[in-house]
Amino acid sequence: MKENIIRDIKLASSGHRKIEWVKRNMPVLSKIEEEFIEDKPFSGKRIVMSIHLEAKTAYLAKVLKAGGAEVSITGSNPLSTQDDVAAALAEDGLHVYAWYNSTAEEYNEHLNAALDIKPHIVIDDGGDLVHLLHSTRQELVRDILGGCEETTTGVLRLRAREKAGQLLFPMISVNDAYCKYLFDNRYGTGQSVWDGIMRTTNLIVAGKTVVVIGYGWCGKGVANKAKGLGANVVVCEVDPIKAIEAYMDGYRVMPLIEAASIGDFFVTVTGCTKVLTKEHYEKMKDGAILANAGHFDVEIWKPDLDRLAVERKIMRNNIMGYVMKDGRVINLLAEGRLVNLAAGDGHPAEIMDMSFALQALSAKYINDNYNSLDKKVYDVPDEIDRKVAFMKLEGMGIKIDELTQEQDEYLKGWGE
């Protein structure tokens, strides 16, 4: 394996402080770390991670290492890696291959370097590691027991591969667990997207028209937080059921081509490609702000912006202004990449506490049960989802009721 590929090991002290801060606010993962230290479930196993390399992810990597694993880690997005956090992990003995603002070639090099560990378990965010293992790095598949996928985009890729009969090892869809999408996708994305937008633009949201494109769990969170900030929210959808839901949640619903001329902020949350394109840019008002909260930078179609613009100029850090022929300026945040990570610190630590607890326990489930798993996409087992929920309640000091035996039998029966 190659030596660590990081910017500067001297940045490690700052990274350690960030990791320690999030650890103090992630009680569920801290409890799992205690269990892993005692049980060492991953002894002799190698785990590769491609995930947004920041402090909360770093703590997950350290928890897996505490469980006995040899861990290699790289970023899942060129603009979400924090160089001081990468340095801290390298100093702690993990194999680290990532730096901020990597080129496409460097990003691919980092992914391959991380895979050189010859992993037994894969933890992916978006599906790039799994893609390499099914294409140019198939020689490594013989050692793979299985893995976990963090986000919607990666799960879509996995299910498409499974449907085609081409999935080479079992994967658990962490994204589809209740304790993930109900909290991470909704509350985490909702808060962190607006953290990133407001930090980057320094503009008020109240009174503005916010166009949220996609009303899945992430879109629900983005729309809800925008409403809370005082915005007038428009939702654009292709799913009729989600469109009705958005309408009944109190938002205006209309086609994107109509919303294009009235929006002040546009946030794409679809997981699809070419969502905002030439026909929309031509209708947008001067000063419109575009932000993407989907995994890949294909939702806001940049080639059309480049073709329409007569000039590109940096307006502020992480804001590129595209000057149109008529003088209008359309502002793109964070190169159209995940705005909450490329222009912010990602989801709050308390939210990722649940998501990364699911990752850790799902990886353990793969390790314990791989012999009985087929080459398919599995949901997170219900007992893991509920364990994380109960641990989270305990961490927050909240107690809840329990069914009596009579109530439990009543709910399971049909007689009364």
- The spatial strand order of the largest sheet comes to 9-8-7-10-11-14-13-12
**CATH homology group of the largest domain:** Adenosylhomocysteinase-like
Q: Could you give a short account of the major beta sheet?
A: 8 strands, mixed
* Percentage beta strand: 15-25%
Structural class: alpha/beta
Q: Under CATH, the topology of the largest domain is which?
A: Rossmann fold
Family: Belongs to the adenosylhomocysteinase family.
InterPro entries: Adenosylhomocyst_ase-like_sf, Adenosylhomocysteinase-like, Ado_hCys_hydrolase_NAD-bd, NAD(P)-bd_dom_sf, S-Ado-L-homoCys_hydrolase_CS
GO molecular function: adenosylhomocysteinase activity
Pathway: Amino-acid biosynthesis; L-homocysteine biosynthesis; L-homocysteine from S-adenosyl-L-homocysteine: step 1/1
Q: Care to describe what's here?
A:
The protein is built from 17 helices and 15 strands. By secondary structure, it is an alpha/beta fold. It folds into 2 domains: 9-180 and 347-395, 3-Layer(aba) Sandwich (Rossmann fold), CATH 3.40.50; 188-342, NAD(P)-binding Rossmann-like Domain (Rossmann fold, 3-Layer(aba) Sandwich), CATH 3.40.50. The strands form 2 sheets. An 8-stranded mixed β-sheet has the order 9-8-7-10-11-14-13-12, with helices on both faces. A 7-stranded parallel β-sheet has the order 3-2-1-4-5-6-15, sandwiched between helices. Helix 7 (152-163) links the parallel strand 5 and strand 6 (171-173). The termini are far apart. The mean pLDDT is 96. Its EC number is 3.13.2.1. Pathway: Amino-acid biosynthesis; L-homocysteine biosynthesis; L-homocysteine from S-adenosyl-L-homocysteine: step 1/1.
